[in-house]
Amino acid sequence: MTNEELRQSLLMEPKNGYSRISEAQRAEMESYCKDYMAFMDACKTEREATAWAVAEAEKQGFKPLTAGAEVKPGDKYYLNNRGKSIILAVIGTESLANGANICAAHVDSPRMDVKPNPLYEDSEIAYFKTHYYGGIKKYQWPTVPLALHGVVCKKDGTTVTVTIGEDDNDPVLMVSDLLIHLAADQMQKTAAKVIEGEQLNVILGTEPIEGEGSDLVKLHIMKLLNEKYGMIESDFLSAELNVVPAGRCREVGLDRSLIAAYGHDDRVCAYAELAALFALDTPAKTAVCILADKEEIGSVGISGMQSHAFEYFMETLCDAQNVKLRECFANSFCLSADVSNAFDPNFAETCDRRNNSKLNYGVSICKYTGSRGKGGASDASAEAMSHVRTTFDKADVIWQIATLGKVDQGGGGTVAAYMANRNIVTVDAGVPVLSMHAPLELVSKLDCYETMLACKAIYLA
Ligand code: MN
Ligand code: MN
C-alpha cells in the first residue's frame, strides 16, 4: 500500500458540504431556507414560535392531546404549554414501550425584557427600563433598530398582542450610545462595562403632550399606548414585552450562502425539527418534537425543559397504550437540537480548530458542552455518539463534530442534561453559528438544510 492509499483508508478527511450535495439537493436547500426565513420573520419570541407551530400543526392534522384520547399509529398530537412552548408527536407503529425518538430545541433567544414598572421620563425623553434576558454583550444593543413584541394582560381581563417595529410603516425603538467625541472614559472600560445593564433604556419618544403639568412626554407615550392597545400604566405589571432587533432576515454574501437573522439560536433547529416532523409518514417509533422555552436562562420554569409539562404529555400518551412512562423514557433517544459556534478565523485563538464546527460542513454533533472540565455537560457516551453518526451516515446526512471553544475559554449548555436526567440517551447536534447571541447571527444555508435532514433521520431511526 502506498502512503496515499493508507491515508485514504485510515485517516479522516472532512470535506466542504458543497462538494457533496447534488444539484437537486441544492434546489431543495434553497427552497427550505426560503421557508425558514419566512418563519424567522414571523417568529421572534417563544410565544410567536409556539403560536406559529400550533397553527401549522393544526393544518397538518395534529390535535391537542387530552387525557383519555386514543393513541394509535399515525395519530398526531400536540401540547400547547401555555402559549410559550409546544410538544408534538406523531405516533409510531411500535408501542411506546419501545421508546420515542425525540428532537428537542428551544425557541427563546437573548433579548431585552421590559421591566414590570418600565415607563419613565428623563430630560423630556420617555424610556422603558429593561432587564436583559440570556447572555448578551450589552454593548451590541445600542444604536440598532429595535421592535417591541409581546402581550399585555389588562385589568379588564382581556389580553392584547403588541407588535411595534416590524411593519415598514411602523416606527422602531432604540437605545442610545455615547458619542465618540466624549467617550474618553468609556473607551477605557472593559467591554463588560462599556454599556451597563441599567443603561439599556429604550427610547420611546420626545414630544410632550399639550398643556401643563409634569412628565408630559411620558403622558403622551401612555396616551398613544392607550389609544392603540387600551392599556393603562398599571397593566405593565401583567405584561410580557420583549425588545428584539427589528427587521427581516437577509441573505448574506455575494454568493447568498449565509442567512443573517435575530435568534437563529435556536429557532434554526426548532424549524428543522418541525419541518422534518411535518414531512413524516407514520414512523416505526413515535416521533416527538419539542420547542422549549427558557433555555437561555437555564431551562427553568413551567415552560422550560426541566418542567414536568414534558412528563405530562408523554405520560398521557403512554397511559393510552398502557405503557409505563419510565419504560418509555428508558428506551427513548433524544437529539438535543441546538446550535454550536462556527469556527471564526477572526477569533481563531478562542477555539481548538481540530475540534470546532465549521460553516458548510453540515450539522455538528457535540459530545459535550459545559465549561471548565466539562462542568454541567451531559457528555454523551461512545455508544450514543455511535448511534447518531451511523444514523446520519445511513441517511446520507452531511455532519461534523463540534466542541464549544478551546478548553477553559468559556462554555455553554443546552437542554441535553435535562433530557439525560430523565434516563433518556441524549446527544447534542445542531447548526454552527457565527456571532451567536448578537442582535444578528449568521448561519449557512447548507448547514440549516442538513440539520433538517438530521432531524428526519433521528425520527426514522
Ligand atoms: Mn441554544
Ligand atoms: Mn443560546
- What does the main sheet amount to? 9 strands, mixed
Q: How many E strands?
A: 22
- Determine the oligomeric state from the structure: single chain
Shape: globular
Query: Which small compounds were modeled alongside the protein?
Result: manganese (II) ion
What report would you give on this structure?
There is one protein chain. The protein has 461 residues and is of the alpha/beta class. Helix content is 27%, strand content 24%. The protein is built from 11 helices and 22 strands. Helix 2 crosses helix 11 and helix 6 crosses helix 11 (445-459). The radius of gyration is 24 Å and the shape is globular. Bound molecules: manganese (II) ion (MN) (2 copies).
Question: What are the SSEs and their pairings?
Answer:
Layout: H1 3-10, H2 23-42, H3 46-59, E1 63-64, E2 76-81, E3 85-90, E4 100-106, E5 111-122, E6 125-133, E7 146-153, E8 159-164, H4 191-194, E9 202-205, H5 216-229, E10 239-245, E11 250-252, E12 258-261, H6 264-278, E13 286-292, H7 309-320, H8 325-330, E14 333-337, E15 340-341, E16 363-366, E17 370-371, H9 382-394, E18 399-402, E19 411-412, H10 416-420, E20 425-430, E21 432-433, E22 441-444, H11 445-459
Parallel strand pairs: 1-2, 4-13, 4-14, 14-20, 15-21, 16-18
Antiparallel strand pairs: 2-3, 3-13, 5-6, 5-10, 6-9, 7-8, 7-10, 11-12, 12-22, 16-20, 17-19
Bound molecules: manganese (II) ion (2 copies).
One manganese (II) ion binds at residues 106, 265-266, 295, 338-339, 414.
Summary tags:
461 residues; alpha/beta; 6-stranded antiparallel beta sheet; 22 strands; 27% helix; binds manganese (II) ion
